[in-house]
């Protein structure tokens, strides 16, 4: 659907309003009527922007939250050009997850979407991972170019390993409410990069 | 509840039968009646062993599946006394997750339990993690004692890092259907152990 700039703004207002409600109350506890009320949207407007109903809106909010995962790490993630910046990005990651604790908004959404539309949920996560990994690989290449790390380091594999440490740490944080796993695994992944 | 050996056998039959049904059809698609039929159990028997009903049975099956996560890695996990055995254990982990793909039975259950009884679900995962981590730490200590790795290596921290690599790899496997993350992260965690 091609939207006018005003249409795009309305759609965005609905998506961010829904995202805020989901974060606040939990996905299962929010109805389309709640979202209409919170975003001052009529039934016909909601249907106009999301003809597929609730599951289409959930997908749009999941895309928005996936963007947010990367945006929360910016501008650090896009500028990992020296070791000091990597350390600052590491601190940012720890802070994000420490504040978020069990409440990862994206995984709450994909858990719901996995039942309705697993392929679409998977696509959103894969696309986000690819972009995340590309940023990290660019950062590894920068360290390699400036001679801060072993030039034989494989940027893509290293990026994938760092991402796996974060995802594992975040999953164990949700399961156990302990930050230890994330902190240890991320430290170890970065230390072994530098060795 | 203290059970006679016959009572314990009946309870076990119900739990393993329910676990098999959950694995086959998905947790949401299995009713208590399905479980009674598959395990040849009467309503009063089921109520006798699980007075708390479905959620109590789900908890018992989650405990069983948590045991299974560790049992699937045995006898290797309990005998990580030299580097060759660590490699064999690594191969076993890769094989388990490659066969399982998106279908992790424990996380399917804890996802359901997180709504009904989050504290109980968390306890099961924490207890399993502790035992898993203890096995790995014992293995790290063995390598350290035999001089195969740097004696300054912290066994508990190393064990936590290896577990985080596996959990991250398994989570990304579920999200993307790619084994790459698990293979890379586990290889990297073990390589850095040996360095």
Automatic annotation (TrEMBL), chains A, B:
InterPro entries: Homeodomain-like_sf, HTH_TetR, Tet_transcr_reg_TetR-rel_C_sf, TetR_C. SUPFAM superfamilies: Homeodomain-like, Tetracyclin repressor-like, C-terminal domain. Pfam families: TetR_C_13, TetR_N. Residues 31-50 bind DNA. GO terms for molecular function: DNA binding. Keywords: DNA-binding, Transcription, Transcription regulation. Residues 8-68 form the HTH tetR-type domain. The keyword Transcription regulation applies. The keyword Transcription regulation applies. This is TetR/AcrR family transcriptional regulator. It comes from Actinomadura craniellae.
């Amino acid at each position: 659907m091609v939207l006018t700039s005003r249409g795009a703004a309305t759609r965005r207002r609905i998506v961010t309003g829904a995202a805020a409600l989901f974060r606040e109350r939990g996905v299962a506890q929010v109805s389309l009527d709640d979202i209409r009320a919170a975003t001052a949207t009529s039934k016909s407007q909601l249907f106009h922007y999301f003809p597929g109903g609730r599951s289409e809106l959930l997908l749009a909010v999941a895309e928005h939250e996936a963007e947010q995962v990367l945006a929360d790490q910016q501008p650090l993630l896009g500028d990992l050009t020296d070791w000091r910046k990597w350390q600052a990005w590491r601190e940012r990651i720890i802070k994000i997850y420490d504040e978020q604790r069990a409440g990862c908004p994206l995984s709450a959404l994909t858990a719901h979407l996995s039942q309705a539309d697993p392929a679409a949920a998977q696509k959103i996560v894969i696309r986000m991972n690819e972009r995340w990994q590309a940023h990290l690989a660019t950062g590894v290449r920068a360290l390699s170019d400036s001679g801060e790390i072993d030039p034989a380091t494989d940027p893509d594999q290293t990026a994938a390993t760092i991402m796996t440490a974060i995802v594992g740490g975040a999953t164990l944080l949700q399961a156990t409410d302990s930050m230890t796993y994330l902190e240890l695994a991320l430290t170890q992944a970065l230390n072994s990069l530098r060795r």
